[in-house]
């Protein structure tokens, strides 16, 4: 029996390996966007104490100095040294944020095909752009367990000329425990991790000549004209802090986070109530600033899209200056190199400005983002148009493609063909060794359905892809309408 791939991606996809043995059907598990689930259920905080040590710290800070911005609150919840969702020390055996035992599931954990296709995307860009003497940087922002990078790297390794040009794999990660998981997967549990300036480094398990290098900030990644950056950000931008504003009779006013202990301070206005009602007893709540804040003065004038909403009384908008700042750096890095690419995949809006999108997830249930800070994952919709605008503003030497729906992106990259190919390989194994791979086949099929499905629970329409590439002759990247071109060797 021969397994064939029918598509223009055959050339690339046939280089990929048969399935790995660890596939799981994750159909009962919710994605980070929270599709599937409904009820808010964090426990009510004990009046005499605090739900978490971070809740206490935030309450005391707010009581001392007044309400804080939503961005400051979100940042503390996610990456505070005092017990942020990603930075808190996890007890031995407590597991991490992902999968059935964690809080949510992400695409690379659902199917190996996801990371492999992103690897194919990177290879297809390299084939089109390759330059002699270049040093390729493979960069991932927020790599989680490292699964996507592991699947991506296995794919890139099939293309020797490209793999031989890779200078290092760079991971931008704020979480010490997830950095540990990434190190175990990519370098092996025994390999020593070394401290380097501003970060850590260790040898790749499968390619000992290549170092895996961790930084907490994108800016630490070295940059010069010979270095070609290929940058992946999957479910990273949704974790970057947002500011929220409501359009009042007096112009844009910022929504701030207040402590419930300061009773009577809340203004229940449109846009505020929606978030508050997601939990019965949140320890924190939004309140409307009664005077302009620096952010309400500086951020809404940034784009015509926000100005257009000034006609709409009580309109609420979310702006993430941190995302815009990062996008600027990404765009400039690609622009200055005149080579490379960035691929951003996340959930969010294609053209509208996100509003009231901040939500919490705990144990696969959507809950208030204002309860149990540090224990609840908080995230917000990504404003893809704002990212695209910022990338173009930041460098004249880049162009932006998308956003396109994940279903279309993965479809064009050949997800169906790749999945069928792997299933065919499994069947071949069954012929040889008996019927032991039924669960893996089921996992591959349900994974495919989950990643591209546009039904409730599917990730195909909610998740979107955006690409930043150097300015070129109008040809689109693969997955955004383009074809595979160039030589692979
Ligand atoms: N991309 C992975 C994980 C997504 S979860 C996947 O798809 O499975 C978000 C990731 O971003 C985690 O690895 C988290 O630790 C990291 N992260 C969140 N905020 C961060 C920040 N401000 N700086 C660096 N890493 C951050």
TrEMBL record:
Reactions catalysed, as given in the entry: L-arginyl-[protein] + 2 S-adenosyl-L-methionine = N(omega),N(omega)'-dimethyl-L-arginyl-[protein] + 2 S-adenosyl-L-homocysteine + 2 H(+)
Chief localisation class: mitochondrion
Keyword Transmembrane: no
GO cellular component terms, A-Z: mitochondrion
Top-level taxon: Eukaryota
Gene3D superfamilies given in the database record: 3.40.50.12710
Cellular location(s): Mitochondrion
Keyword Mitochondrion: yes
E.C. number: 2.1.1.320
UniProt cross-references to Pfam families, sorted A to Z: Methyltransf_28
Top-level class of the enzyme under EC nomenclature: transferase
Keywords recorded for this protein, A-Z: Methyltransferase, Mitochondrion, Transferase
GO molecular function, one term: protein-arginine omega-N symmetric methyltransferase activity
A GO BP entry: mitochondrial respiratory chain complex I assembly
Role played: Arginine methyltransferase involved in the assembly or stability of mitochondrial NADH:ubiquinone oxidoreductase complex (complex I).
Family: Belongs to the NDUFAF7 family.
Protein's UniProt name: Protein arginine methyltransferase NDUFAF7
Organism: Tuber borchii
């Amino acid at each position: 029996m021969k397994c064939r791939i029918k598509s223009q991606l055959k050339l690339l996809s046939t280089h990929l390996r048969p399935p790995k043995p660890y596939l799981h059907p994750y159909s009962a598990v919710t994605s980070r966007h929270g599709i599937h689930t409904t009820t808010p259920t964090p426990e009510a905080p004990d009046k005499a104490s605090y739900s978490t040590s971070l809740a206490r710290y935030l309450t005391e800070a707010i009581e001392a100095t007044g309400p804080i911005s939503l961005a400051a609150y979100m940042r503390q919840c996610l990456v505070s040294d005092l017990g942020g969702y990603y930075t808190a020390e996890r007890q031995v055996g407590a597991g991490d944020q992902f999968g059935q035992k964690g809080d949510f599931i992400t695409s690379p954990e659902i199917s190996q095909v996801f990371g492999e296709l992103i690897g194919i995307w990177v290879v297809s860009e390299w084939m089109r752009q390759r330059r002699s003497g270049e040093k390729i940087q493979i960069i991932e922002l927020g790599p989680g367990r490292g699964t996507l990078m592991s699947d991506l790297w296995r794919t890139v390794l099939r293309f020797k000329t490209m793999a031989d040009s890779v200078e290092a794999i760079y991971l931008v990660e704020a979480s010490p425990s997830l950095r540990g998981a990434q190190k175990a997967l990519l370098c092996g549990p025994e390999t020593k991790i070394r401290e380097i300036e501003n970060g850590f480094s260790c040898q790749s398990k499968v390619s000992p000549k290549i170092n895996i290098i961790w930084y907490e900030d994108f800016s630490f990644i070295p940059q010069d004209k010979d270095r070609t950056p290929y940058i992946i950000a999957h479910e990273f931008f949704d974790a970057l802090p947002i500011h929220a504003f409501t359009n009042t009779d007096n112009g844009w006013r910022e929504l701030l986070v207040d402590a419930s202990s300061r009773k009577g301070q809340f203004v229940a206005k449109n846009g505020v109530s929606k978030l508050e009602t997601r939990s019965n007893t949140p320890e924190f709540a939004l309140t409307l600033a009664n005077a302009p804040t620096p952010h309400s003065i500086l951020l809404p004038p940034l784009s015509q899209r926000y100005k257009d909403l000034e006609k709409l009384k009580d309109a609420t908008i979310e702006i993430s200056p941190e995302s815009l700042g990062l996008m600027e750096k990404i765009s400039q890095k690609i622009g200055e190199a005149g080579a490379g690419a960035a691929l951003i995949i996340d959930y969010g809006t294609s053209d509208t400005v996100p509003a009231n999108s901040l939500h919490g997830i705990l144990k696969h249930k959507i809950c208030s983002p204002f309860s149990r800070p540090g224990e609840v994952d908080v995230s917000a919709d990504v404003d893809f148009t704002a990212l695209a605008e910022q990338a173009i503003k930041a460098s004249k030497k880049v162009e932006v493609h998308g956003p396109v729906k994940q279903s279309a992106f993965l479809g064009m990259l050949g997800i169906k063909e790749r999945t069928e190919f792997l299933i065919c390989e499994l069947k071949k194994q069954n012929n040889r060794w008996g019927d032991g791979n039924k669960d893996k086949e089921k996992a591959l099929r349900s994974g495919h359905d989950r990643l591209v499905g546009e039904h409730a629970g599917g990730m195909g329409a909610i998740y979107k892809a955006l690409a930043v590439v150097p300015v070129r002759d109008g040809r689109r990247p693969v997955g955004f309408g383009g074809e595979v071109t160039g030589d692979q060797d």
